[in-house]
Specification:
Elements (H helix, E strand, L loop, with lengths): L1 E2 L2 E2 L3 E3 L7 E4 L10 E4 L2 H9 L6 H18 L3 H12 L6 H14 L4 H41 L3 E5 L16 H8 L4 E6 L6 H13 L2 E5 L4 H6 L5 E4 L3 E3 L4 E4 L2 H11 L3 E4 L5 E2 L5 H4 L8 H4 E5 L5 E5 L12 E4 L6 E4 L2 E3 L3 H7 L10
Helix pairs in contact: 1-2, 2-3, 2-4, 2-5, 3-4, 4-5, 5-6
The structure holds 5-S-methyl-1-O-phosphono-5-thio-D-ribulose (MRU).
Length: 368
C-alpha cells in the first residue's frame, strides 16, 4: 500500500546489503514514519515484544526473518533450535508466530548448516509473499459483503472495525481492511467506524493512519460507542481480524472484539472475521479454554502517549498512582457470534465443517 504516493510493505529485506531487515516502527505512528533496521536476532525479538511490529501475520513474517538473522550468526542445530524458541516466545496469542517458526524449522532442519542461511531467506521471503497474496485474496472474497449492501441500499456502507487489521498488521493489504480497500477500488462508497482500541490505540493511531493515507472515509470512535451506533442503524457490517481461530471457529482477537460481537448479535448486524489460513490453529477446538491470552503491562492502561498541543510527543498518566490496572490484550469471540470467516480461499461458516470445506488439505486433529 502507499504512503504519500510511495509503495511500502510493512517489512522487507534491505535491497542494498541484501540481508538486514527493514520495518516501519509502529510505535512511532502516526506521529512519525520511521524505518528501523534489524540486524540480529535480538533486534527482531525486541521488535515483536515491544510491538514495533504487531498484528498476527506481520509477527509471523518478522519471526521468519529474525531466524534468518540468527542463522547468520550461528547455523548449528543447537543454536537454531534455541533461537527459534526465543522468537516463538516473544508473544503468546497470535498463532501465526508459531506457524511461521514451525514452517522455517521444517524447511531448515534437514539441511546442513552451510546451506541454512540461503534457504532461510528464501523461505522467509515466501512467507512474506504468500501473506501478501492471501491478504489480497481476502479482499476479493470479502468485497462482495460490502458490495451487496451497497447494491441493496443504494447508500454509503458503514463498516465498523476494531484494532488494526490493515496492511500494517500484515505484510501488505491487511485482513479486515482488505475488503474495504477492494471496495474503495471498485468505487463503492464505504465509510469505516474505527474503534480507538484502548489501551494501545491501534485503531486511532494505525487504522486511522492507513485509511487516511489511502483516502478512505473514516471516523474514530471510543471503544464503547459501537453498541450505540448499531442500535441506531449506523453500522451495516462489522469486519475484524484475528490472532488465532480454532478449528471450530472461535476467534481470538484484540480485547474488546467480543463485546462488539455481542452488540452486533443483539442488533442483527453481520459480524465477519477476516484471516489468512496461517491464523487457524487446527490443534484446538475451544477458544475460551485453550487459547493463551497475553497479559501486557499495567502501564499500557495507566499511561497514554500522544502529541501535546505544543507539538511535542508526551506521555501522561490517566489514573491515580495507587490504583492497580489489569491488561488482558485479547479476548475470544465464540463461533456462535460470528456470521462467517473470510479467508484466502473464500468465505465460510465459523465452524469445523465450514473450515474443513475450504481447507480439506489441512490435517484435522480430533478433539481431545
Ligand atoms: O496486539 P496487536 O496489535 O498485535 O493485536 C493485533 C490484532 O488484534 C489484530 O486484529 C490481529 O492481529 C489481526 S491482524 C491482521
Amino acid at each position: 500500500m502507499k504512503i504519500d504516493g510511495t509503495p511500502y510493505r510493512s517489512i522487507w529485506v534491505d535491497g542494498h546489503d541484501g540481508w538486514s531487515v527493514r520495518i516501519i516502527d509502529q510505535t512511532r505512528l502516526p506521529w512519525a514514519l520511521e524505518i528501523l533496521r534489524l540486524a540480529e536476532l535480538a533486534d527482531a525479538a525486541h521488535a515483536i515484544r515491544a510491538m514495533q511490529v504487531r498484528g498476527a501475520p506481520l509477527i509471523g513474517a518478522t519471526a521468519a526473518v529474525g531466524l534468518c538473522l540468527a542463522l547468520r550468526a550461528d547455523a548449528s542445530d543447537m543454536a537454531m533450535e534455541r533461537d527459534a524458541a526465543i522468537l516463538a516466545a516473544t508473544r503468546p496469542t497470535a498463532v501465526n508466530l508459531h506457524w511461521a517458526v514451525a514452517r522455517m524449522l521444517a524447511r531448515l532442519r534437514p539441511l546442513p548448516a552451510a546451506l541454512r542461511v540461503a534457504a532461510a531467506y528464501a523461505e522467509a521471503q515466501a512467507i512474506a509473499d504468500e501473506d501478501v497474496a492471501m491478504c489480497q485474496a481476502i479482499g476479493q472474497h470479502g468485497v462482495g459483503l460490502i458490495g451487496d449492501i451497497a447494491a441493496r441500499t443504494g447508500q454509503r456502507v458503514n463498516v465498523l472495525t476494531h484494532c488494526n487489521a490493515g496492511w500494517l498488521a500484515t505484510v501488505d493489504w491487511g485482513t479486515a481492511l482488505s475488503p474495504i480497500y477492494a471496495a474503495h477500488e471498485q468505487g463503492i462508497d464505504v465509510h469505516v467506524w474505527v474503534d480507538e482500541t484502548r489501551p494501545r490505540n491501534q485503531g486511532a493511531a494505525l487504522t486511522a493512519y492507513e485509511l487516511g493515507k489511502h483516502g478512505i472515509a473514516h471516523t474514530v470512535i471510543v471503544d464503547n460507542a459501537g453498541g450505540h451506533l448499531m442500535q441506531h442503524g449506523m453500522v451495516d457490517l462489522v469486519i475484524v481480524g484475528a490472532d488465532r481461530v480454532t478449528r471450530e471457529g472461535d476467534v481470538a482477537n484484540k480485547i474488546g472484539t467480543y463485546l462488539k460481537a455481542l452488540a452486533a448479535h443483539d442488533n442483527g448486524v453481520p459480524f465477519w472475521v477476516a484471516l489468512p489460513s496461517s491464523t487457524i490453529d487446527w490443534s484446538i477446538a475451544d477458544g475460551i479454554g485453550e487459547i493463551p491470552i497475553e497479559e501486557r503491562a499495567a502501564s499500557e492502561v495507566a499511561l497514554l502517549t500522544g502529541r501535546a498541543l505544543d507539538g511535542t510527543i508526551a506521555t501522561i498518566r490517566v489514573m491515580p498512582p495507587g490504583s492497580d490496572a489489569a491488561n488482558p490484550a485479547f479476548d475470544v469471540t465464540p463461533a456462535r457470534l460470528v456470521s462467517g470467516l473470510i479467508t484466502e480461499r473464500g468465505r465460510c461458516a465459523a465452524s469445523e465443517a465450514g473450515l474443513r470445506a475450504l481447507f480439506p488439505d489441512h490435517a484435522m486433529q480430533p478433539a481431545a
